Amino acid sequence: MKENIHFFSQNETVKKGVDLEKLGQRGRQAYEFAELALPILPGFIIDSDLAAKLGEEKVGDLIRPGLRKAEELVGKSFGDAKNPLLLKIVVSPNLAISNYPTLHNFGLAKDTVSGFASWVGDNFAAHEVLFLVRGMLAVELRLAELESRAKELDKLKAADIEVGKALVSDKATKDAEALMDAYASYMPEGFFSSAAAQFELALKRVSRVIALDEQDAEDTAILVQPMVYGNYGKSSASGAFYTRDIVSGAGKLQGEYYQERFNEIGAEGKDINAIDPGYLKELEKIARKLEDKHREIRQIRFTIENKKLWLIEQRQVLAKSTQADIKLLLDLNARKIVDDEFVVGSIAPGRLNEILHPVVNLSSVKKLPSVSGGIAGAPGAAIGRVYFSTEALLDAYRNAKQKGEDKRLILVMPATFAEDVKAIEVATGVLSCEGGYSAHASVVARQYGKVSLVKTDMKIHGNKASIASLSIKEGDYITINVPYYGEPQVWLGKADLIEPDPKDSGLLDFIAMAKKQMGHFHVRANSDSPRDATMALLFGAEGIGLCRTEHMFFLDKRINVIREMILSDSKEERVKALAKLQPMQREDFYGLFKVMAGKEVTIRLLDAPLHEFLPHNATELQALIDYMDARKGAKKLTKAEIQARIDALEEFNPMLGHRGCRIAVSYPEIYEMQVRAIFEAAYALQKEKIAVHPEIMVPIVMNYRELKQIVYGKKIEGHAYQGIVAIEESVRAELGAKPLAYKIGTMIELPAAALSAGEIARYAQFFSFGTNDLTQTTLGLSRDDFNSFMPDYTMYDLIDGNPFAVLDPRVRELIDIAVKRGSAARPDLAKGLCGEHGARPENIRFCMDAGLNYVSCSSYSVPIALLSIVQIELDKAAKEGRKLVQKEIRTVAAKAAAKPAAKAGKAPASEKVLKASAAPKAAKPEAKAASKKAAAPKAASKKVAAADKPAKAAKTAEKPASEKEPAAKTAKTAKK
Ligand code: PEP
Ligand code: MG
Predict the structure, then answer these.
(1) Please, is 108 exposed, middle or buried when counting C-beta atoms within 10 Å of its C-beta (0-12, 13-18, 19+)?
(2) Which of 129, 93, 319 is nearest to 217 (CA)?
(3) In the annotation, is 661 catalytic?
(4) In this structure, are strands 766-769 and 743-748 parallel, antiparallel, or unpaired?
(5) Residue 19's closest CA among 33, 4, 34?
(6) Per-residue pLDDT tens over the stretch 70-114
(7) Whose CA is nearest to atom 3 of ligand 1?
(8) Is 837 a catalytic residue?
(9) CB pairs under 8 A, 24+ apart, for 649-652?
(10) Among the atoms of ligand 1, which is closest to the Cα of residue 836?
(11) Candidate list 433, 547, 834, 857, residue with the active-site label
(12) How far is the CA of 604 from the centre of ligand 2 (A)?
C-alpha cells in the first residue's frame, strides 16, 4: 500500500517508474512543479490504485511518513495544539474537468482550534471552520446522492446555503468552537473531536465518493498538501501577480502583495515590486521558470508564512495584450527557450491589428469632460466631429475632403441600419445606444476596422446627445476610447493619440523574425504616398503592389486642375491642364520611388471614372467656378455651362462605364501625362543613382486589344495612338538617359480578362488580380451597395459570408484559369493580388496554392499578411515533414541584392517620415545593394528593357491573327 503513496516537494520528485496516469490531473501538475524545483507546498498523492479503497485501511499509518516530511518542511505539526499544521485534500481525476472543490483546513478540530486562532485571530479562525464545513458538506452531499439518501439531501443543501451566506460576511456570527458544534451533526461522527480523527474520517469519505462515482472510480487519485496562511504572524504575506506586465509586456512583475493579510475582501495591496528584495528575487525566479515552462505569461499566487515563501497556484492568463505576448516570445527566443518558428507561429495574424493602431494619450484628456463605461463594440481609439445622421456625416465628409479639412468624423445614432454602412465606412467611429457587441453598428465597425461603443445611457434628441453630464452637439469633437482591456471612455474634445510604436512594441523585431522564414511568396503594399510607403517598408513590404493614382488627384491643390482638364472642350485645352498636373505627378512618383529605392513599385494608371472628380455640392461647384474664372486668358464658363458638362458626364453605372483604360482610349493624353511623369521621376532618380523599378499597370482591361494599343500604340485611319513604350523612349531621348528596367502589366478584374488571360499575357509582364472588381463583376454584385442587403442574404443563408472579404469560389476559379492561361503564354509572368482580400489568411493560402507571387494590401495590413504567409509556409513545411528553408524572394530588388554591382548608390531617404529610430536596421544593406544595381544600368537594361516585347507565346499558344509586331521604334531594345 505504501508504494501507492507518492511524496513530492521542492527537493523531491515522484520516484522514477511511477505511472503518471495514476496521479490524476492535479497530481501530475504537482509532480511537474516538483520537477521544476519550485517552492511548492510539499505533499503526497494517493494514487488511483488506492484512492477508492481507503475505507478498510489504517489511513493514519499509511500517510504518516509523507505527513512527517511535509511537517518538517513547513515547520508545523499536524494536530499540534499550539501551532497546528492544517491540510487540504484535492480530488484528482484524469478528466480535465473535476467536479470536486478543493477541501480546506483539515486538522482544524477541538484540540487545535485555539492554537490556530492564536496566530490568525478568532474571527479568521471561525471563517476557516466554515470553509472546512463547506468542503465537507460538498462531500456529504455527493455521498447522499450516490447512496440515494434523498431525505438527507435537503438538509445538507440547506446547511450548504447557510454556510455559503455566512462566508460572504466579513464577520463570523459565532466563534470557531460554536460553529463546530453547530455543524457537527452534518459531519461524520467525531469529526471535530481531534485533528487525526478528522483527517482519517475525511479521507475515508472522499475515498467512498470516488469508489461510488462510476466515472471516477478507476482513475482518480487524491492529493494532500499543507495549508499556509498569509496572516500567520508578523512575517507573513500573500499576493498574486502576473509574470510580466500584461499590457506592455515589460519584464517587471505586475501585481500586488498583502502584508499579514490573507484572502481578505477589499484589503489594500502594495506593488509586488516593493516586496522585500529577497522575496522579490525569489518570485522573479519563479516567474521566469514558469514562463519558460509554459511559454506564456502566467498568473501566480503565493503565500509567505512565517518567512517561508510558498507557490500556491499558477495559471494561464487570458486577458493580455498582443504586445505583451510578442515581448514574452521575443524574450524567450533571446534566451533560446523557443526557436524563431515557435515565436512566429504563436501569434494569430489578426491579433497584430491591436498594435498597429493608435491609442489615446491619457495625459491629453485630463482636462476634458468625460464619461466612462459602455459596451465595447469594436476596440480602438477614435477622434472626430459628431454627426447624427448618415446624410449629415457624408456631407461633412465631402466638405472636409474638398477643403482639405479634418475628415475625422464620428457617427452618433441610436442604432445603425444597412443604409448607414456608407457613413461608418468613412467615419472613424460609431457611438450608439441600442444593442451591444452584436448590434449592427458594432458588427459593421469591426468589419471596417472602425471603433464602436454602445452607451445605453446615452439620450439623443435631434442634433444633440447627452450621456450623464456630458452634452454633445453636432460638429463637436469627441474622443472615444474602447480599450482591449479596461473600461471604455468618451471625452468631449480632441485628445492626442499615441501612434503605435512598432519598435517599442516589439513588432519590428517580430516582423524581422517572421521575414526570415519567408519563401518566394511575399507581400507588397497598396500605397500612394511616400509616408504610407515608408510605413509599409517598415512593416515588411517587399514593394508597392498598387499605387492608385486617382488618390493623388483628390488633393486640395489639384482637384480643380483635374476638373479643368475634364471640362475642357478640346484636346489642346486638356493637354494644357494636364501640363499643370504633370510636375505634380512627377513629384508624387519621385517621392514614392525614392522611398522604395530598389523595390518594385506598381503604378496603376488612372482608373476612376472622370465624373468622380467633379463637384458634388454647391460649395464645391462654386469653388470650381471661382478657379475657372481666375484663369488668365482662358475662356470663361457660366455656372449653367459647367453644370451642363457635369450632367453630361454623369453615368448610370459608372463602375461598368467610362473608366480605367477606357478613358485612355478616349483621352490618350491623360495616360501620356502619367507615363511621362513616371519616367521623368524614374530617370531623375537614375541620375541620382537610386535604383528604381517601375511597373506600370493598366486597369479594367477586358481584352488584349485594349492593352496592346495602350502598350504599343496604334495607327488607324488617320488616328495615331502613342503607346507607353514609345512614350518612355521619347522621355529617355529627351533626358539623354540610359534605358531603365521597367515592366508593363495589367489588372485582371473582369471575368473576360481572366478568361482571355492567355492573349492578354502576351502584352503584360505581370497580372495583378483586382479582386474587388473581379468579385463585383463575377457575382454582378456592387461592392458599394451589397452591404445594404448582405444581412438579409446572410439571414436566409443565401451566401457564405462576405465575398468582398473572403474570395468567392467562382472568383477563385477565374483566378486559377487566368494564372494557368497567362503563365502558359508567358512562363515568367509575375502574378499578384491587390484587392481588399489580400490580407486575410484564407485568401492568402489560396493565392499561394494558385501560384501567385504576392499579395498586396494596405500598409497597416502588411504585417498581418506577412505573418499569415509565414504561418502557411510553416504549416506546409510541417505537413510535408520538412524544415523551412528561406527561399530568395523573387522580386527585382531581391535579385539585385543578390548580385552586388560595381558602385555603391545612395540609401533611400525613407524612414524619416516615421520616428527615425523606428527604421529597421535590416533595411540598410538591402537598400545599398539595391541601389548598387542602379549604378550598373547597362547590364540590367539589356536584359530587362521593359515590356517592349510581347511574350513569345508558349508553343501551344496560338498566335492571334491580329497581332502585329510592336512599333518599329521599340524593336531595338525589345528584340535581341
Ligand atoms: C480591385 O478592383 O480589386 C482593385 C484593387 O482596384 P480598385 O479597388 O481601385 O477598383
Ligand atoms: Mg478595380
Answers:
(1) buried
(2) 93
(3) no
(4) parallel
(5) 4
(6) 999 999 999 999 999 999 999 998 875 666 777 999 999 999 999
(7) 770
(8) no
(9) 649/566, 649/610, 649/611, 649/614, 650/611, 651/609, 651/611
(10) 3
(11) 834
(12) 10
Q: Tell me which of 425, 548, 656, 854 to substitute to probe ligand 1's pocket, judged by most ligand atoms within 8 Å of the beta carbon.
A: 548
Q: In what order do the strands lie in the sheet with 43-46?
A: 5-8, 43-46, 220-226, 87-93, 103-106
Which residues in the chain show pLDDT less than 50? 900-950, 952-976
Whether 270 contacts 259, CB under 8 Å: yes
Ligand 1, CB within 6 Å, residue ranges: 546, 548, 607, 749, 770-773, 834-835
Amino acid identity, residue 194?
A: S
Query: What are the residues whose beta carbons fall under 8 Å from the beta carbon of 569, sequence distance 6 or more?
Result: 635
Q: What is the DSSP string of 579-638?
A: HHHHHHHHHHHHHHHHHTTTSEEEEEPP-S-GGGGS--SHHHHHHHHHHHHHSTTSPP--
Question: Using CA atoms, how far apart are residues 960 and 767, in angstroms rounded to an integer?
Answer: 20
535 CA distance to ligand 2 centroid (A)? Answer: 23
16-29 burial, b for 16+ CB within 10 Å, e for fewer? eebeeebbbbbbbb
Q: What pLDDT was estimated at residue 881?
A: 87
Cα gap 852→819, rounded to integer Å: 8
Cell reading at 556 = 486640395
Q: Whose CA is nearest to atom 4 of ligand 1?
A: 770
* CA 754 to centroid of ligand 2, rounded, Å: 14
Report the SS3 class of residue 484. coil
Out of 440, 522, 693, 837, which one is annotated catalytic?
Answer: 440
Instruction: Report pLDDT digits (tens) over 704-735.
Output: 999 999 999 999 988 999 999 999 999 999 99
Residue 22 grid cell: 495514476
Cα(775) to ligand 2 centroid in Å equals: 10
Q: What distance in Å separates the CA atoms of residue 473 and residue 479, rounded to the nearest whole number?
A: 14
Residue in the block written with cell 477586358: 702
Give me 533's grid cell: 510607403
CA of 789 to the centre of ligand 2 (A): 22
With the most atoms of ligand 1 within 8 angstroms of its CB, the residue from 528, 607, 769, 779 to mutate is 607
Q: Which cell is 843 given?
A: 485568401
